[in-house]
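Input.
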Amino acid sequence: MTEHDHHHWMNRAIDLARRSPAAEGAFSVGAVIVADSREISTGYSRETDPKVHAEESALDKLGANDPRLVRATIYSTLEPCSERATKTRPACTDRILQAGIPVVVIAWREPPTFVADCVGVEKLRQEGVTVIELPELADAAMSMNRHLDLS
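Output.
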């Protein structure tokens, strides 16, 4: 995939993030899963229930053993979570690792707004996942979250 492709799919994820119902206690995030240069699933925060994360929503639409996942790239506007407030749901990093997705592309890292030390990127890289950051798209990816403390 070229840098142009990464920007195309991240902009698609940013558009999805704008669909997220606003919430005081959560980020609005969009996610797109791409395999063989085609979109195979999408998700956004609070798409199916008040606690669902974007990556989780996109993964839930595919079978756990979907053979495309091992050659897929997931685009997420925000670093995938490394822990959940709702302990009954696995963290998005764990879901990505379980799915076998080899490449994760993000626009910005999770600030300490809700989690003091998100280690999603580090955990993914430690497990051999390629993580690509697109800081030039961070402002656009943050735009629907300006009502939160992003410092």
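The first strand starts at residue 30 and ends at 35.
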